[in-house]
Write a structure and sequence with these properties.
The chain contains 6 helices and 11 strands. By secondary structure, it is α+β, with helices and mostly antiparallel strands. The protein has 2 domains: 113 residues, Phosphorylase Kinase, domain 1; 108 residues, Transferase(Phosphotransferase) domain 1 (Transferase(Phosphotransferase), domain 1), CATH 1.10.510.10.
């Protein structure tokens, strides 16, 4: 039985009483969970399905919002192995807090609103025609200018204390001609390096290199290159307040 503080006590009670079914919830059950949690006053439909979570378009007092729901027991990874119930609450809590940290730092991320168990609500990026597209799904009119905005955004994230550990063209939305960063469940906090700053900075370096290399693949179709070495060095110098990497 989960005893993780990130989960509401009602989850443990439902497991113990046998009310909570140990199968992945369907749309009706998810809709009911969203409404009963108070995250939304209406659920309109599914926006996207990810590896570990789905995003729904919902309404709160007639305003559109997005709600991310982590799957309770299974992911869509190859093999579909079950994951612990308390882990989904931890993932939702971590992504919520990471998104909130980035938002407080002025980075373009969907404004987080509230979290309940394995779900959290945030600003909906889109309009009447649909949600904002992922960078991977569109052709840019001014790719060089947009690339500059993306690199600036990565640096702004680091200044806010967050390094995206799964950065790619799939985790950047294009809204109002600007890049918006999403999916922070695996992000690193780098404003508080703890007792092992060298190790955390090395982890940040690896994550930045992986993310920028992924973006290289997207922007290469426009004939653009990313000087990832210079960008990473600049970011790490900003974070390395004690000179541990020198």
């Amino acid at each position: 039985m989960p005893n993780d503080p990130y989960l509401d006590a009602s989850v443990a009670w439902r497991i113990k009483s046998g009310i909570l079914d140990l199968h992945e919830a369907g749309y009706r059950d998810i809709r009911e969970a969203i409404l009963s949690s108070g995250l939304a006053t209406d659920v309109i439909g599914l926006i996207s399905a990810g590896k570990e979570a789905d995003v729904y378009l919902a309404g709160f007092n007639e305003g559109p919002i997005a709600i991310k729901v982590y799957r309770l027991y299974q992911t869509s990874h190859k093999g579909g192995r079950p994951i612990k119930l308390d882990q989904t609450g931890w993932l939702a809590a971590k992504e919520y807090e990471m998104t909130r940290q980035a938002w407080k730092g002025g980075v373009r991320v969907p404004t987080p609103a509230r979290r309940a168990e394995n779900m959290f609500s945030m600003r909906y990026l889109g309009d009447e025609s649909g949600p904002a597209p992922r960078l991977n799904d569109i052709e840019l009119d001014e790719p060089e200018s947009f690339l500059t905005k993306v690199i600036n955004g990565v640096e702004e994230l680091a200044k806010a204390g967050v390094v995206h550990s799964d950065l790619s063209a799939y985790n950047i939305l294009v809204y109002e001609h600007e890049p918006w960063f999403i999916d922070f469940s695996e992000a690193l906090r780098v404003d508080r390096l703890g007792n092992a700053p060298w190790q955390r900075l090395q982890e940040a370096s690896v994550a930045l290199e992986r993310g920028l290399n992924s973006l290289k693949g997207y922007f290469s179709k426009y004939g653009l290159e990313i000087d990832s070495k210079t960008a990473i060095s600049r970011i790490l110098r900003t974070l390395d307040k004690f000179g541990v990497l020198e």
